[in-house]
Amino acid sequence: MLVLAFSLPNLSLSDARLNPASTYPLTSRWSLGIDDRKIEQYAVVQVQPAYPLAAQRYRIEGTVTVEVLVKDEAVVKANFLRGHTVFKAASIEAAKQWRFKCPEKDELTGTIDFTFKLDR
To answer: Who's near 82: CB < 8 A, 6+ residues apart?
Structure first.
């Protein structure tokens, strides 16, 4: 019989208080439930992703969240945050084609949600 043991660092609530959320990457803030970064209302061009064939074949549906960095109205960086990974490539590709009218500044960071739903 083979037994594998793993050791994980012990973290307590006091450890979390020592490192405020602002010191973590934005993706960590998302997992904490901070959902005030939706920037879809600033979009002037929205491109919907193609439905991946594998997801169609296996009837996979869901919502995907992509984090984007916008400079000079264009998406310069897109990161997959959450959702089924079968939608990852299509969502990132679509997000990179979005264009935004940035309010009051030349740079904007936020999230875009894409919903994949099959016709019944």
So the answer is: 30, 64, 65
